[in-house]
Amino acid sequence: MSAVTETYSLGVPVDIGKIDQELKKLWEQSEGAMTRASLVNLAVYSEAPGSLEKNTQLIAKITENHACRAIVIGADCEPKQNRVEAWISAHCHISRAGSKQICSEQISFLLEGPCTKLLPSIVFSHLDSDLPFYLWWQGEFHDPMDPQLWAWVDRVIYDSQTWKDFDAQMRLVESAQQEAKQRIVLCDLNWTRLDKVRFALAQFFDHPASHHRFSTIDSARIDFAPGFKSTAALFAGWLAA
């Protein structure tokens, strides 16, 4: 069926008010050959041109090992009038038993206009039951942050390496966490890039004979590539802590 393919198309165009109805049809037409699976809600938001197709490819890879309800949002905030388009599709992978396809739903949205105002209602209307809600925000956060949106988020994923104003963006992240009463788990992809470096450095001081040498360090110099000042700052913060 056209909506379930191994390509990275956005799937079947649907009316906004008929998304749940069309998803139900999708599974009914599978005649039991596919099993719908979902462990989390994963929303991916981007304002970059062509992000819908790019993020659909990412979702296809993610769902190979992590079943989810994916909500992929591409936004263009320049137009003055609101416009919304939507598509549905499914990412399917053969189960380990080899008998059925395990499938994750994807709902894609193209938002045009003052679209950040539409975002909370779009997301909330299509979350899957009471599953955890992970939001992957690609790019910079907007000021002010929408408290309605952050009240639902369990985990926010972002990349501070691309931020032009690190301090201002971190203040927005902190305000979002406050809006959610500290419930949000913060996941900075910029921080995860340091995992192997931090592990390697920590190994130098793992042996009992080397423990005391760490306390004798009174200065350090960190060299970093252009554009990675924030990554270096995170690393310096880890060393200081």
Structure description:
The protein has 241 residues and is of the alpha/beta class. The protein is 32% helix and 25% strand. It contains nine helices and nine strands. The protein has helices at 19-28, 51-62, 119-124, 147-150, 166-179, 189-192, 195-204, 211-214, 229-240, and strands at residues 12-14, 34-36, 40-46, 68-76, 83-94, 101-112, 133-138, 155-158, 185-188. Strands 1, 2, 3, 4, 5, 6, 7, 8 and 9 form a nine-stranded mixed beta sheet that branches. Strand 3, helix 2 (51-62) and strand 4 form a beta-alpha-beta unit. The N and C termini lie far apart (54 Å). Residues 1-7 have low confidence and may be disordered.
SS strand fraction: 15-25%
By DSSP, the count of extended strands is 9
Shape, principal axes of CA atoms = globular
Q: What is the straight-line distance between the termini?
A: 54 Å
Q: What value does the average pLDDT take?
A: 87
Structural class: alpha/beta
Spatial extent as radius of gyration: 21 Å
Sheet with the most strands, sense and barrel status: 9 strands, mixed
Q: Report the uncertain regions.
A: 1-7
Question: What's the helical proportion of residues?
Answer: 25-40%
The helix/strand series, from N terminus to C terminus, equals: EHEEHEEEHEHEHEHHHH
Q: What is the number of helical segments per DSSP (H or I, 4+ residues)?
A: 9
